[in-house]
Amino acid sequence: MVILRSKIPDIDIPTVGIYQFIFPDEKNVSDDKNDKTVFIDGLTDKKLTLNKLKSNSKKFAAGLQDKINFKRGDVLSIFSPNQVDYATVIFGTIAAGGVVSPANPTYTVEEYTFQLKDSGSSVIVTHPLFLQVAVKAATAAKIPESNIFLFGDEKINEILPYTSLFGDREAIPLEYTPEEVKNTTAYICYSSGTSGKQKGVETTHYNVVANVLQISKVEIETNSDMVYVGVLPFYHIYALTINMHFTLYFRASCVVISKFDFEPFCRIIQDYKVTITHIVPPIILALVKNPKAKEYNFSSLQLVISGAAPLSKELSESFYKEHKIKIKQGYGLTETSPVALLGYTNDSTPGCCGMLLPNLECKLINEDGQEVGYNTPGELCLRGPNIMKGYLNNKQATDESIDKDGFFHTGDIVKVDENGYFYVVDRVKELIKYKGFQVAPAELEAILITHPAISDAAVIGVYSEEDATEYPVAYVVTKQKSQRTNEFSEEIRKFVDNQVAPHKKLRGGVIYIDQIPKSAAGKILRKKLRENHQN
């Protein structure tokens, strides 16, 4: 077997729970370190210190246990945009021995209901703006309204603020044995499956602890003076690991933004003297293309790290040329907690997505199922301490993605050179990546064919240079050719867009076709559609 190992020496990974890892006994640490501001609201300047976070998270844990009988292994769902207090709910749930299942707040009632039911959530913390969807989904998932709580201070109807749960006592955070650390699920983030239904990824305490320490070996400049910006959504594993765990572990500060808007983002980098930002290619593109970027002072920014979707060599070079700020990209998936590949800051090659993090091994498998070595494209298969426990309630999908030797098959085709640097070549999986979010073609196809005038449909992702992301494009066979009008295209788009979360909208438009190309087994030949689109 051709197994490639990380060129970075292995590290020791402690078998402790997430709470104990992030908040070890700090009797030796001076109080001013504990009073360090760790989260700041970029719009209101509201601050959360380390002391307050520890205290509030333990009070929240006590309230969960004492007031709503929340037990070890119970699941709490967060349905909200980024908040300064997001960390309080996360670490409070973890301290109580619970599992957190963060959800995309732009989900429809149907999408959120599926996640609530599949994850087995029994408690919801949401945001006033998204309360209506949360209540409807909770009703469908048989979660009582008394178990729905709000970020903020206001009570809406009978729904109370999450702080109403704060106990009179501080809970003693649950501790785990080394064996339990490796097998106990801490997070259930949802990842689109190519079959269309989302899959709940079980990320263990050990997975998160491992990934924070693995990343730290190539992010050696991280310390408590660093200021990060939390602009990526905290329900996404990328921000969950980086902004909720990595920055906190190093006692760095994180300026929280609820959603990306170009000018507020630039102002926050300037005013808060942000030193490092983890972002996605569309934000990097905006920083290159938007002339307003020149109006802001980015001199504090030492490093930009791109993830969640491929960053082209050209865009990487344009960014460096424009801003003279170091930029590098990593590679990962929800299933790898998430970072698997990342390079040293002073050694980043444009277009390269890094090297294997320590303690990781990989093998590359070509189309014929043969293992290949350097400079030959193959599917990246990974084994190591940050690989998920499996897909929740889905043994079949778990068995299909993790082989008998413990390697997770990513579905991405990569090449690696003799120096251990990786380059993504293509995706085997059919998922479309829109601004770092996954869109399953099968899900959109299932909606399209419910339209009475459509007899068949296929969806592919088409890359937009202008926005540095993929757009879903629908190929549609209409029952009558006379229906192939621009007006009907618009009707189809609205028909789909009204039933899905914003990131799944048919931004690439609708194209009419006489017949969807399929294999003998009936599988859609997306490659042919892509070729057709390019021509």
Describe the structure.
- Residues 27-31 have low confidence and may be disordered.
- 29% of the residues lie in helices and 25% in strands.
- The strands form seven sheets. It has a seven-stranded mixed β-sheet with strand order 3-2-12-11-13-14-15, with helices on both faces.
- The longest helix has 18 residues, at 50-67.
- Among the domains are: 18-32 and 47-175, Rossmann fold (3-Layer(aba) Sandwich), CATH 3.40.50; 432-534, 2-Layer Sandwich (GMP Synthetase, Chain A, domain 3).
- It is α/β, with parallel strands linked by helices.
- One of its GO terms (molecular function) is ATP binding.
- InterPro entries: AMP-bd_C (IPR025110), AMP-bd_C_sf (IPR045851), AMP-dep_synth/lig_dom (IPR000873), ANL_N_sf (IPR042099).
- This is Acetyl-CoA synthetase-like protein.
Oligomer: single chain
- In which order are the strands of the major sheet placed? 3-2-12-11-13-14-15
Based on DSSP secondary structure assignment, what is the total number of beta strands? Answer: 29
Q: Which stretches are low in confidence, meaning pLDDT under 50 for 5 or more residues running?
A: 27-31
- Which bin fits the share of residues in helices? 25-40%
Biggest sheet record: 7 strands, mixed
Structural class: alpha/beta
Strand content bin: 25-35%
Question: Given the structure, what is the number of helices?
Answer: 16
Shape: globular
CATH architecture of the domain at 18-32 and 47-175: 3-Layer(aba) Sandwich
Q: Radius of gyration from the CA trace? A: 23 Å
CATH class designation of the domain at 18-32 and 47-175: Alpha Beta
Whole-number mean pLDDT: 93
The end-to-end distance, rounded to whole angstroms, is 40 Å
CATH fold assignment of the domain at 18-32 and 47-175: Rossmann fold
